[in-house]
Amino acid sequence: MRALAAERRLEVLGIPTSRATATLATSLGLAVSDLLVDSIDITVDGADEVDPRIDLIKGYGGALTRERIVAAASRRQVILVTPEKLVPRLGTRGRLPVEIMPFAEPLCQRRLRALGCDPRRRETAGAPFVTDNGNWILDCGIAAQDDAAALDRDIRRIPGVVDTGFFLGTAEQVLVAEAEAVRVLRRAGGPGGA
């Protein structure tokens, strides 16, 4: 973001996915907006896991629902990562964020356990971590997934679940920063993909 702010030849309007990002952007002199625009040209974001199909787990920062909304409103989603975020299967790092309504926590905890997840409420200074949407995050211990789409569907069926950290089929390409170079990974069948 600092590099973008330093580039004065570009006219950019950003749609921040968190209040913290909005605060940083405005402090750097970048123009920001809510989703009041007709369309978003490109979303540039990070990810916590990227598999060989370019499917993702996001949400370790807690803004997963807003990130999904902005990605859905964008023509393109490009992800920036470092090599340790590349995994053979989603769930390899053992953690899937799930955003829930606080009222539904007991039900969500039980149903997630029944699906084989190990849900733990995310906390900050001994209190529940509260998303910018007023919700809580359950960090679910999961195994590496052979069928992330099936687990995603099952979790979304639980009343009180707002969103999951699975971002399946959303990214067009991933830029991997490696030493002095950047490797480009493209979704198979997408623009420029295999």
Could you outline the blueprint of secondary structure elements for this entry?
Blueprint: H1 2-6, E1 13-14, H2 19-27, E2 31-32, E3 40-45, E4 49-50, E5 56-57, H3 64-73, E6 74-81, E7 95-100, H4 105-114, E8 118-121, E9 123-124, E10 127-128, E11 136-141, H5 148-156, E12 161-164, E13 166-167, E14 173-178, E15 181-186
Parallel strand pairs: 1-2, 3-6, 6-14
Antiparallel strand pairs: 4-5, 5-13, 7-11, 7-12, 8-11, 9-10, 14-15
Please summarize the sheet with the most strands: 4 strands, mixed
What portion of residues belong to β-strands? 25-35%
Give the uncertain stretches in residue-range form: none
Roughly how many Å is the radius of gyration?
17 Å
Q: How do the strands of the widest beta sheet line up side by side?
A: 3-6-14-15
Extended strand count: 15
Shape: globular
Report the mean per-residue pLDDT as an integer: 91
Helix segment tally: 5
The CATH architecture of the largest domain comes to 3-Layer(aba) Sandwich
Which class do the helix and strand fractions yield?
A: alpha+beta
Structure characterization notes:
With 194 residues, this protein is of the alpha+beta class. The chain folds into two domains: 2-82 and 168-186, 3-Layer(aba) Sandwich (Rossmann fold); 95-165, ACT domain (Alpha-Beta Plaits). Helix content is 22%, strand content 31%. It has helices at 2-6, 19-27, 64-73, 105-114, 148-156; strands spanning 13-14, 31-32, 40-45, 49-50, 56-57, 74-81, 95-100, 118-121, 123-124, 127-128, 136-141, 161-164, 166-167, 173-178, 181-186. The strands form five sheets. Strands 3-6-14-15 form a four-stranded mixed sheet. The chain is globular. The mean pLDDT is 91.
